[in-house]
Amino acid sequence: HLNNESVEAVVSTQSTGAEKVEYISQIKEISNSSARNAEMSLFCRQPVEAEGILLQGGLIYRAIRLNIDLYKWNRALELAIKHKTHVDTVLAYRQRYLEDFGIQETDNMFAQYSKEIAVDWTTIQNKITMELENERGK
Question: What DSSP state is assigned to residue 117?
Fold first, then answer.
């Protein structure tokens, strides 16, 4: 896992812009070590490692959200189904994405789950808030 010295080494060797330095500073502020290490893995362009760190640390929502943010929709849904949480979250973000681009759903698995599970953004936001609050306690 990465520590402050590792973070500074990454900044000094891979980064040239003020944006990257600011991003590293934000990463260092993350109190949960699994979340912090996963963000560093992402910064180092290692998303598979980042997901593994999150899952090992019990940060299931973050692992799901990582895949959503990377547009790895099937992996996000797979994790949500496996861990029996945030299936509605994955469906909601997928629906929003498709609507934003005027695309119809073509994935049978998403189509099937969309028929079975209602999407309610208020419920989803409440679940996300609860996940993030619980994460701070880990």
Answer: S
pLDDT per residue as tens digits for the range 36-83: 999 999 988 999 999 999 999 999 999 999 999 999 999 999 999 999
Under 8 Å between Cβ of 61 and 86: yes
Distance of alpha carbon 108 from alpha carbon 96, whole angstroms: 17
Q: Are 59 and 34 contacting, i.e. CB atoms less than 8 angstroms apart?
A: yes
Q: Is 118 helix (H, G, I), strand (E, B) or coil?
A: coil
SS (H, E, C) 66-83: HHHHCCCHHHHHHHHHHC
Q: How far apart are CA 98 and CA 82, in angstroms?
A: 24
Give the integer Cα–Cα distance in Å for 13 and 137: 33
Give the other-Cβ count within 10 Å of 44's Cβ.
14
Helix (H) or strand (E) holding 17: none
36, two tokens: 């912090």
pTM: 0.83
What is 18-48 written as a DSSP string? HHHHHHHHHHHT--SHHHHHHHHHHHTT-HH
